[in-house]
Amino acid sequence: xxxxxxxxxxxxxxxxxxxxxxxxxxxxxxxxxxxxxxxxxxxxxxxxxxxxxxxxxxxxxxxxxxxxxxxxxxxxxxxxxxxxxxxxxxxxxxxxxxxxxxxxxxxxxxxxxxxxxxxxxxxxxxxxxxxxxxxxxxxxxxxxxxxxxxxxxxxxxxxxxxxxxxxxxxxxxxxxxxxxxxxxxxxxxxxxxxxxxxxxxxxxxxxxxxxxxxxxxxxxxxxxxxxxxxxxxxxxxxxxxxxxxxxxxxxxxxxxxxxxxxxxxxxxxxxxxxxxxxxxxxxxxxxxxxxxxxxxxx
Length: 298
Known about the structure:
Low-confidence stretches: none
Largest sheet: 9 strands, antiparallel
Strand content: over 45%
Helix content: under 10%
Radius of gyration: 19 Å
Number of helices: 1
CATH class: Mainly Beta
Distance between the termini: 49 Å
Number of strands: 24
């Protein structure tokens, strides 16, 4: 008989809250949380879907800026078209990784691909932000796409493990990293058990689908559990799918809107630049785009 998650320390159980990104596109946000700003370098965790997208739905995210962070986009279902002001236009599909390092600034949009605009389909995925080491906050921005076929996939006991970012169980992802980072996609068949060791300085587990128990306690949908030791994982009748995130904590960061930095001055400067609608520099418009998300009131 399993217990519920109330048996876990409140400081280790992070609960999602709903966040509307516009156009009725609602995500579940786990980080930052009241209990902690980050897990390892991960400072932002959004889970979207599964959501049915119809031709009438406007789930496009218009051009907007970032500094001082890296975004990692991963889909379980659906498709998104990424465009940025470095000139990249990249379709992302399930199993692949889009990594965008903002550094000294980047602007991007995330939209329906043209061929999907008259289609009905399901979108389901995660977008995570990781902090950039303080000494690298002003590096030139970059973008990389790693196709699904290039991601290492292992069978470890009962589990099928995809090493999305970082190293685990003797495999290393080709996705670039700026600091020790761990990101795994794990699937267990029905009614199976698995031991999840500590693989990073800080680590957490987040259920995606199915039924996930940790040390005989059910992790409810929308909850993330911070780990401090090896844990016994068990799946239910429908199996279990969960992600594991972690790595080295890079210290406290200031976050406002889409900007992350170790100093308020850097955030203030980026806000002034974006509000001026620059045509040059790291926060210029995405080629082919005319819309932009305005700077919010502070």
